[in-house]
Amino acid sequence: MITEAAKRIREARAIAVLTGAGVSAESGVPTFRGEGGLWRQFRAEDLATPGAFARDPRLVWEWYDWRRQKIAACRPNPAHHALAALESVAAEFLLITQNIDDLHRKAGSRRLVELHGNIWRVRCTREATVSALPDVPLAEIPPRCGCGALLRPDVVWFGESLPVDALERAMQAAETCELFLVVGTSTLVQPAASLPLVAKGRGAVVIEVNPDPTPISHLVDVSLQGKAGEILPALLAARRGSA
Ligand code: OAD
Fold first, then answer.
1. Are residues 60 and 106 in the same domain?
2. In the annotation, is 80 catalytic?
3. CATH number of residue 140's parent domain
4. What's the gap in Å between 149 CA and the centre of ligand 1?
5. Measuring CA to CA, how many Å separate 211 from each of 7, 27, 79, 156, 196?
6. Which atom of ligand 1 is nearest to the CA of 228?
7. How far is CA 172 from CA 88, 93, 110, 189, 203, in A?
């Protein structure tokens, strides 16, 4: 299966990749769903919403402060590095991530779209200006803008739209790629989940990497069951070997 997938990757001129929380699992970032999922302890559905922030910004920021500290201690794993390496050999490439942890960029990925924002950025709730807030732990909870208004994490919450530019770039890559790689996502959250199906509909080869079956597993061309940190480096090595 790896050999077949590696051959398809080598033959493709335009590659798009969609990643989810599973790609950072081996770095120590908890996934949202499944064993050890963040939601078990914190009910993210109740915290990652505009309504929760309006009701209790302190509670929401305490949760983000906890996540920021956890993520700050995490480093990119071999899966992130393999995707950065794939970018450097692909003619056309876009890495679309649902993750907000910045680990792809830390691993060297540059042709990157963050669909759900970035946990290290904040946005003023009055002026909408975006800035970096690297403090860990936060000096003040909830943090405030210089103008006095509350700052919020620059991430997408439930019920909010995705950044238009990011979604357009992702959709265009899905529509035009020859190969679409789906890694470590449960494909349950829209619109990200529809991207591999768009690619498939346009004739792209779709390869999935996940230890568990997902709702799209039966639709993909090659399903590689296993951990991203093991499968992706093996895939890259096999791609080189098949040259
Ligand atoms: P999920 O937590 O829903 O899914 C994680 C997936 O990673 C599951 O399918 C696991 O089987 C898989 N997985 C676990 N360990 C893995 C490993 N070592 N290698 C590869 N795969 C592994 O996370 P997402 O699909 O990213 O959005 O969730 C999508 C969105 O739901 C998140 O971006 C977040 C959440 O609501 C927002 O907050 C807007």
1. no
2. no
3. 3.30.1600.10
4. 33
5. 21, 16, 14, 26, 18
6. 19
7. 20, 11, 17, 19, 14
The model's pLDDT over 138-184, given as tens digits with 9 standing for 90+, comes to: 999 999 999 999 999 999 999 999 999 999 999 999 999 999 999 99
SS (H, E, C) 154-183: EECCCCCCCCHHHHHHHHHHHHHCCEEEEE
Residue type, 241: G
The catalytic position among 80, 81, 104, 116 is 116
Let me know whether 47 and 109 are in one domain.
no
Does 7 share its domain with 55?
Answer: no
pTM for the full model?
Answer: 0.95
Are residue 166 and residue 149 in the same domain, yes or no?
no
The residue whose two tokens read 């807030």 is 133
Domain range for 63: 37-73+121-155
User: Residue 140 has what DSSP assignment?
Assistant: S
